[in-house]
Amino acid sequence: MPQVFNWQLGREMSYPYEGSFPQRQFAFVFNLNRCIGCQTCTMACKSTWTFSKGQEFMWWNNVETKPYGGYPQFWDVKILKQLHEAQQEPGRWDAKTQDAQHPYGTYTGKTIFEAPVQQAGPEPQRVLGYLPTDEEWRFPNIYEDTAVGKPGAPLTFDPAGTQLPEHKTWFFYLARLCNHCTYPGCLAACPRQAIYKRPEDGIVLIDQQRCRGYRKCVEACPYKKAMYRPTTRISEKCIGCYPRVEGKDPETGGRPMETRCMAACIGQIRLQGLVKMNPDGAWTEDRYNPLYYLVKVAKVALPLYPQFGTAPNGFYMPPRWVPRDYLKQMFGPGVEEAIAAYLTPDRELLAVLQLFRKTNLIIARYALKEGPKVYETEIHGKPFTLYNDTIIGYGEDGQELVRTQVEEPFHVRPAQHQNSI
Questions:
Q1: Can you list the domains of the chain with their CATH numbers?
Q2: Helices of type H across 190-323
Q3: What average pLDDT score do residues 199-217 get?
Q4: Average pLDDT, the chain
Q5: Based on the number of CB atoms within 10 Å of its own CB, is 372 exposed (0-12), middle (13-18) or buried (19 or more)?
Q6: At a CB cut-off of 8 Å and minimum separation 6, what does 15 contact?
Q7: By the 8 A CB rule, do 58 and 226 touch?
């Protein structure tokens, strides 16, 4: 099996195909500290792409409540259990090798592509996975707003630990869509080679002329974002709203635009764009691309289950109130550093966070214009200074798309109209 370099694992790994990478890659960052679970993104996607017969249980975008919720139900618990059983011990991260090339250290366990080698059966597996039951697809909102509490005392709140940094009774919303992975499990498993990554932006698509509905993609995707449609007997998945990303939406005048789920987010948790890639699959240094800055420089955004080995291009700012062991299993070893940076943001990070949902157009670059100091204080034992800086977002063509300040301006309307209260 060919060897490819996975920068999220900090090492080479086995993959069924040679590495081939787009010049630019579709990617996104979600701030889970802001998500309110309103499902506006979910319904924006549903009303655009999956409202037809046979798509009733297709939710390309969903928001699930962790730790109990999931769509399909148990999707992450089941694949984590399979990985554990395949290697007889949990995978570990070696922090000694942590550097710019290996931002999270080196993962020493097996990925979903390497674990099947140890399994024997009537049909060899390319990718470790499972097919969810029909019942597991029926409940997109199961356990919504259900918190984990004190052991042995269900439906009660633990009076201790109600303050940060960790709550004893907790839950959080996890917004999910296809990660358009660098090494997709669905692509690796498809016997028809019906799944491919677009060379222009790395969006993963299914060629519906080639697909025969074997559901190998459904089985292999560890995030369960490839879905089978019984009325057509072929599989479908998130298409990254590629007409919008291409700039073909009539609203934009030819400029690349964010996806429907991103644009609809009222909690301002989402930022989506394109990052440049090296020939080895790593990200090209692009210091003032907001996604590159959040993932590579500020290191506040982490991949979802990097141990699977797919190198997902969806990144998350971990919720700061959740027990760290749970978050480390979900987002890898960079959790402590990411939360610390978010709790006491520096001047640049605070400004970049203002770009979230300030425009529906894709921001390729930002610039910071320094403003006056507003005040100084102390947050979690660390000094913090607030500056009212201005951040400017530019498109691929260098034209200004958005300009906003760290402090939002207040406009007081004079009460000189007839219906004034």
A1: 3-343 (3.30.70.20), 347-405 (no CATH)
A2: 216-220, 242-245, 260-263, 290-292
A3: 96
A4: 93
A5: exposed
A6: 1, 2, 3, 4, 113, 183, 188, 309
A7: no
